[in-house]
Each structure stands twice: as structure tokens, then as C-alpha cells.
Amino acid sequence: MKKLFITQVFLLIAFVSYSQDSFVKNRLTLQLGTKGHRYYTKKLTRDHFGLNLNYRLSNHFELGGYLSYSHLKDDFTDTEIKNGYSLFYGMNGYYHLSPYFIKKEQPKLSVYLKGSIGGYRVLYTELGDPARYNYLDWGSYLGVAYYPWKRLGFYGEVGYGSRSLGEFGISLKLSK
Q1: pTM for the full predicted model
Q2: Which of 27, 70, 121, 173 could cysteine-pair with 56, CB 3.0–4.6 Å?
Q3: Could you give the CA distance from residue 55 to residue 174 in angstroms, rounded to a whole number?
């Protein structure tokens, strides 16, 4: 585990220092989206909505955080679970592949690899007793963002994670 952490820190430093003179660094992006979720052991998430706030450190690397919310339903009876919901939170790291094949200063298309790590908290009432559980949330995804307008665009991601198979939504460039 220690070797894995040291390797990840080394890769992070390498990615950040790779392209410090980039035309897209120092850009802040807000993404609002919904996730396609896998099943809990007995519960099923529904209506999953969240946001990502990301900061572009260099031409290839972006770092951010995420926060999202979803309702729970019982997957056997398809009924609403009393006071059932999940809160997801964590960090995202993005490695942008587009600068290798798109040389425009403000490209409309961005292709990237995304890794996320964080946690989620499941809260619900079962048989009159409140239940609370904390779990690890992680994932690796391939994503595409397309900006038909200067600051507003769409994004989609597919991959595999502890609870997610992908995400899609709108993306807003807050700076540059």
C-alpha cells in the first residue's frame, strides 16, 4: 500500500510538471451531472445528482472534488425506503489526452482519463431503527467533454467504480 501511494505521488508530480506553460492551465470548471449506478447489496440508488468542481493545473492534468446525493429504493419491492439516501464525496484526478492530437488554443473537444477516490454514507430507516454505513468510493473512467459554446458544454464518462458505471451532464468553464 505504501509503495502504491509513493508511486501515485510520483506520477502526480510528473503530470503536473509536464506542461507548465499550457494555454489552458488555471481554468476552473463546474460540472453538474447524474451517475449510472450499480446495486447495493439490498438497496438501489435512484435519482443520483451531483457536482464536480475542478481546477486545471496544466495542459494535461486537472484536480477537483465531487459531492453528490441519491435516494434509495428497495430493489426487491421497488418501494421507497423511509428516509433513505446516500451522500458521495471525494477527489477526482483527470489526465487530458486531447492536447496530443488537438492543437487549438480553445478546443471544443476534450478526451480524458479520470480517477476518483472518496467515500459515501448510506442512511436509511429499517424496521424503525436508523441505519448508517460508510463505504469507500473509487473509480476509473474514460470521458469526453464537448463545448459547442465558449463556456458551456456537455460531458460523458464510462468506466468502472465501486458504485458507478459512468456519468453525464453539463460542464461550465468558470474562468479562461
Answers
A1: 0.74
A2: 27
A3: 10
Question: Quick one: DSSP state of residue 161?
Answer: E
Instruction: Using the CB atoms, write b or e for 139-155: b if 16+ within 10 Å.
Output: bebebebebeeeeebeb
- Cell numbers for 167, please give them: 456519468
Q: What are phi and psi of 97, to 5 degrees?
A: -95, -20
108: which 3 cell numbers? 471544443
User: Quick check: 114 and 143 in contact, CB under 8 A?
Assistant: yes
Phi and psi angles of residue 8, each rounded to the nearest 5 degrees, phi first: -65, -40
Q: Which of 15-29, 30-44, 83-97 has the lowest mean pLDDT?
A: 15-29
The Cα–Cα gap between 61 and 56 comes to 6
Q: Is the distance from CB of 49 to CB of 88 less than 8 angstroms? A: no
How far apart CA 132 and CA 43 sit, in angstroms, is 13
Integer Cα distance of 176 and 169 in angstroms = 21
Residue 174's CB is within 10 A of a number of other CB atoms, namely 12
CA distance readout (Å), 38 to 101, 102, 126, 162, 176? 34, 34, 21, 8, 36
Query: For position 22, what pLDDT does the model report?
Result: 40
